[in-house]
Amino acid sequence: MTKAMPALVATNLTKVIGQRTIVDNVSFELFRGEVFGFLGPNGAGKTTTIRMLVGLIKPTAGSVTICGHDVRGDFEEAMRCVGCIVENPDLYRFMSGRENLEHFARMLRAPAADIERVASLVALEHRLDQRVATYSLGMRQRLGIAQALLGEPEVLILDEPANGLDPAGIREIRELLRELALERHMAIFVSSHLLAEVELMCDRVAIIHRGRLLREGTVRDLIASRGEMELRVDDPGRVAAILAVRGVSYRLEGNLVVAAIDEDEAPPLVADIVRDGVAVFHVQRKLHTLEELFLEATGGETVE
Asked: H-helix or E-strand containing 115?
């Protein structure tokens, strides 16, 4: 089976301002039907990267292709494929939600029927005729996403879509984005500082730090990539002695022994442990949180 063509390709993106390199040779791909998380500490280059993706600023070097169209050489065609929110949704608070969507629909030449469709997608149809000034922060975020969905884009780019929301609002946004990716086969790029939420929402993630891409891959592969196995045994001390003789690093967590080995090294180790008379009740690969991986990759710097 041939691999699907990516909806968005960023190749060697670089942005230099004065003597400072803000984004340094960043490359990644975004596919239809997935949610891709873009993570980085304050000043890492996330928003600068997003601005280059949608043509708001020109890269010093590198290129962006969206739905087969080069952003610099074929800007209008590339942008027809994209819905985006960069930083906060740009909304007119003195107007109703419907009037906001009508305004943006005219700019995008989107059909009037699109307004009801996107309002239903973000569950705002019951408040569409009320002024945006009366909306909660979560409702304004949802209206911003509705605006980005006008014209049925193939690629959705969102900068901090759950920013400032309460847990219920965050869950609504997560479920909406998963639905858009899975049921409508959209390619969704999300910049976020909510690491636990990204772990639940995203299929793949990339971690950027000081302008450079440090990690990129599926969430499961990344959080399981540190090469550790958990063993639940009846005598952790004896297992620790066996590991020490073999020169294997380990740590004890109650009746769990966490050994610094890869999965394919576990069977012979378990055989040795059992031969030594230790009962082994359970063995599994140690999964780490995305937060642990992030802090390890960035040296403990916090996200925006």
From this structure: helix 113-121
Question: How confident is the model at residue 228, as a pLDDT?
Answer: 79
Q: In this predicted structure, what is the pLDDT of residue 155?
A: 95
CA dist 238 → 220, 246, 268 (Å): 31, 13, 16
Token reading at 93: 């608070």
pLDDT of residue 1: 37
Helix (H) or strand (E) holding 281, with range, is: strand 280-285
- Residue 291 is predicted with a pLDDT of 72
Tokens 């039907």 belong to 33
**In the chain, what is the straight-line distance between the N-terminal and C-terminal CA atoms, in Å?**
40
Q: What is the pLDDT of residue 300?
A: 61
How far is the CA of 85 from the CAs of 55, 147, 155, in angstroms?
13, 9, 12
**HSE-up (13 A, CA, CB side) for residue 197:** 24
- Tokens 């690629």, residue? 155
pLDDT at 67: 94
Q: Which residues of the chain have pLDDT under 50?
A: 1-2, 303-304
- Integer CA distances (angstroms), 94 to 21, 99, 114, 191, 279, in order: 40, 10, 22, 28, 69
Domains of the chain, start order: 8-223 (3.40.50.300), 229-287 (3.30.70)
